[in-house]
């Protein structure tokens, strides 16, 4: 038999269909209350930190000079294996640190077309490993790092060690990805050139 909310004894929760509706409504509003609590935590915690970091990084870029940073990008475009670490390690790290995501990809404009896919691969692979030490670089995706960090802190470990290891592994990965993607791009460009020669 269906028990109406009005029929429920005073002080007791409704049961039946109306009880399910009441619990669903409580869950629904609780979801937004949890989001609001999280937002307030960000507002008094990470957002002021990000504003200060962005201000400091922008001041540093202006102090160094945009022209000097652009000249470094042109230097990284030189051919040869000795320029791999400059092109796929230093340039992506500096781009992500100074220009942040997604502006960091614009540094690829100084590279020849054959290097652009590999530079992009290196840069896009570094926007997460840098977050532990420099959250200003990709604040929109801090939830990835904080998800990992939550598990580490629950186990009682510190975040400093995690942040440094995350960064070091990221540096190795972006160099490998840059070199491999450059080789794949060169092979595809050579195949495309051969095919165009056959068609002509």
Automatic annotation (TrEMBL):
Keywords for this protein: Membrane, Transmembrane, Transmembrane helix
One Pfam entry name: EII-GUT
Residue ranges crossing the lipid bilayer per the database entry: 39-61, 142-160, 166-185
Signal sequence residues: none
GO BP of this protein: phosphoenolpyruvate-dependent sugar phosphotransferase system
GO CC terms in record: membrane
Matches recorded under InterPro entries: PTS_IID_sorb
Protein name: PTS system, glucitol/sorbitol-specific IIC component
UniProt source species: Klenkia soli
